[in-house]
Design brief:
heterodimer, A: Helix Hairpins, 2 strands, B: two-stranded antiparallel ribbon, two-stranded antiparallel ribbon, 4 strands
Chain lengths: 126, 155
């Protein structure tokens, strides 16, 4: 009986830990997206400040290639849209992972309680 | 995400610190310590960025009419230089991030670096203010932990 509970507890704990790891990884991904969004917003503002005939270059490997300002603006806007979409996805994932974590914590507490009771019972019978 | 603040905000619940257990208080303190660490890291990197912008601005200040045609050494790598001559010193190309570069005349370039330096300084001030607030809360928590520890019956 106690062994059975112990096994269940261990199982739940492994689940909890892998969940925790996944949550951590997702939060890291969110941070990265956040900084990318920030950088792109700054670039967008800077491009908007340029006169219509402003010269823009894009670095491709070791060379700078001249780009049209309109094209650069479109490109940055597209990237911002994409990042925003990804952010939304990641946020949803984080929310669902946090919910799962709560569930794991709850069942872990329950199991721990049961385990303690079983141990007390076993001690009384001994 | 959970937030800790000393000022009251509509979406936050007010908690009387003295009603919390030592366990809860130390968890709270740990969380604050982590946040303060993040602030410290951010401040360091912001300071680096600020310095970079200021450096660029100062370099531009030394650009004047006489500099055109002067000899310079162009770095090809960290340790290899080739001789060169400065031509067209009326405009510079600036890295604005995400692999985009824009050409700006000198006044506009100076303005760019001034704006960036100001922006970074403002962010630093914000973080410093937040950090101060959080460390105040942290101090308060430590104080209450101490009081609670003293109140506990001596073993």
């Amino acid at each position: 009986m106690t062994e059975d509970l112990q096994r269940k507890f261990q199982n739940e704990l492994t689940n909890f830990k892998s969940n925790q790891k996944e949550l951590h990884k997702t939060i890291q991904a969110r941070k990265l997206l956040d900084s990318q969004l920030n950088e792109n917003t700054v670039v967008k503002e800077e491009l908007n400040l340029l006169p219509p005939d402003g010269k823009v270059y894009k670095s491709v490997g070791p060379v700078l290639i001249k780009t049209e300002l309109v094209e650069a603006k479109q490109n940055v806007n597209k990237r911002i849209d994409y990042i925003n979409k990804e952010l939304k996805k990641v946020d949803e994932l984080i929310a669902s992972l946090e919910k799962k974590m709560d569930g794991h914590t709850e069942s872990l507490q329950k199991l721990q309680h049961q385990l303690q009771q079983a141990q007390v019972k076993a001690a009384l019978h001994a | 995400m959970a937030q800790i603040s000393s000022t009251e905000q509509p979406h936050m619940k007010q908690i009387d610190l003295s009603t919390l257990s030592i366990q809860q208080l130390s968890t709270l303190k740990q969380q604050l310590d982590q946040e303060l660490d993040v602030f410290k890291d951010s401040l360091t990197s912001l300071k680096g960025a600020q310095q970079k912008f200021q450096n660029s601005h100062e370099t531009l200040e030394s650009f004047n009419d006489e500099i055109e045609g002067k000899d310079i050494l162009v770095p090809l790598s960290g340790s290899i230089y080739v001789p060169g001559k400065l031509v067209d010193t009326s405009s510079v190309i600036i890295d604005i991030g995400t692999k985009y570069y824009v050409e700006k005349d000198l006044p506009a370039a100076k303005d760019y670096f001034q704006r960036k330096t100001k922006f970074v300084s403002e962010q630093m001030e914000k973080i410093q203010y937040l950090g101060l607030e959080k460390s105040k809360i942290r101090d308060a928590i430590i104080e209450i932990i101490q009081i609670k520890l003293n109140q506990q019956p001596q073993a």
